Amino acid sequence: MYAIDWRRIGKTAGVVLTLLALWLVFGIYRAGHPWLASGGLAFLAASAALFSWQRAYAWRYLYPGIVAILVFIVFPALYTMRIGFTNYSSSNLLSFERATAYLMDQTCTSGGDPLKLQLLHRGQRFELVLQNEEGGAWHSAAIALAADKPQTLSLTAGGDPAAGEQVPLRDLIALQPALRSLTLNVPGLATPYRLNSLTSFAPAAPLYRRNTDGSLKNLQTGDVLRPNFQTGFYQTAAGANVQPGFRVDVGWKNFVRLFGSAELQAPLMRVFAWTVLFAGLTVLITFCIGFALATVLSWEALRMRTTYRVLLFLPYAVPGFISILIFRGLFNENFGEINMVLHALFGIRPNWFSDPLLAKSMLLIVNSWLGYPYMMLLCLGLIKSIPSDLYEASAIAGATAWQNLTRITLPLILKPIMPLLIASFAFNFNNFVLISLLTDGRPDFTDSLVPAGTTDILVSYTYRIAFQDSGQNFGLAAAISTLIFLLVALLSVVNLKLMRVNAQDKR
């Protein structure tokens, strides 16, 4: 039997993977993403150097983690910050080159009668037959239609629509994007034909002509469009913007607008205040509940402690999004069980989703239900670590249970649990799932020009500006995201300092 040479197999596999990666990088470059291709090439070079240099052997274990941090944390953060300095929005999605190419592709009818289209099946392909009012006809060869492959076809005189199976109207509608990509040269007619309606082609000429100074001239109206790199639009002489716009750098404009615009500042300050209050109250309530339950469950004389622990831990075991959706149904104003019970006992039906104060209370109730088991587990572990000698000494001194709680238990667990409380505050500061699934930020502010609600926190407010606003202002949303990132980073620094202090105290 021959021994398997695993080293040779590994080298061969490495060469194959490297060639595949180089092919992928080349494909990314050809797709028009040179910077992304450069990053991929740098990654390949670093990988090759690391795994071929013997002295860097130890770094091979850290390398996957470092790459993951760079790709999934550093790059998205930097990219988001970069967008915050642009006018990126639904009106300014394209680059300048693509916006210019879009306008140059526009056509207009240049005179002449339209020709009626008949589309025939030819197996898996299609044949186009065009007819004029006098009965003249022209047809194409059998072709495959694809919207992403513009084609120029030269037609041949003749053709009979009755000689084949016509494509039904429903399928013809589905093929419209592919038909729009066709340019037809008709014998005897100098102007090429383009699709101008559902079932007809008409003579088409370029709508714009590019001048030597970079401006575009509208051949129909004579207007001259000039690119404005301050606003990100081509503009007429009268200053009117022409869609589509293009992305440009706007510097600190989004940040200045964030703090200087009254229409943004008012809802932003209210959302920020509620975000801090929501995160702070959630941490306070969950800690108080968790600490109280942990204290009770630490009582040695309590029977069935294990059963109670399992039952109280269940809210943490159920996936959060399922619990939130269940609570959304329970708090339903018309059919929810909570309102049914309240109506039966007190004759009231609170408007949980339309009243701002009740909506905020509902969020705190649900979030406390989801968060208290975590605090309970932490407090249970910390209480167990307190030496029993302290309680024995306090019993000899005649201390009450309240004195034990406030002078021994609570002071001894506050220091080690403080970093975890700050981490919980940072988590709830960005608790997008709860807001999105339970209230979606509503009820909305009535005096805000941007989508913002009384239960929105900063992250959900940012999401609504980016994806639910009619302008979809990604640049402004990225600016807000940058501020959130800095706030969370500050909390992380405080957390690390507290952990360092705790570690020094233990020594």
From TrEMBL:
Transmembrane segments: 12-29, 35-54, 61-81, 271-298, 310-331, 362-383, 417-438, 474-498
An annotated GO cellular component: maltose transport complex
Keyword Transmembrane: yes
Coiled-coil features, chain-numbered ranges: none
GO BP, one annotated term: maltodextrin transmembrane transport
SUPFAM superfamilies xrefs: MalF N-terminal region-like (SSF160964), MetI-like (SSF161098)
GO molecular function, one term: ABC-type maltose transporter activity
Entry's localization field: Cell inner membrane; Cell membrane
Family membership noted in the UniProt record: Belongs to the binding-protein-dependent transport system permease family. MalFG subfamily.
Entry membrane topology: Multi-pass membrane protein
Domain of life: Bacteria
Domain ABC transmembrane type-1: 272-495
Name this protein carries in UniProt: Maltose/maltodextrin transport system permease protein
Glycoprotein is among the record's keywords: no
Species of origin: Paludibacterium purpuratum
PROSITE patterns according to UniProt: ABC_TM1
Function text: Part of the ABC transporter complex MalEFGK involved in maltose/maltodextrin import. Probably responsible for the translocation of the substrate across the membrane.
Keyword vocabulary terms for this entry: Cell inner membrane, Cell membrane, Membrane, Sugar transport, Transmembrane, Transmembrane helix, Transport
Subunit structure: The complex is composed of two ATP-binding proteins (MalK), two transmembrane proteins (MalG and MalF) and a solute-binding protein (MalE).
Xref: PANTHER family: MALTOSE/MALTODEXTRIN TRANSPORT SYSTEM PERMEASE PROTEIN MALF (PTHR47314), MALTOSE_MALTODEXTRIN TRANSPORT SYSTEM PERMEASE PROTEIN MALF (PTHR47314:SF1)
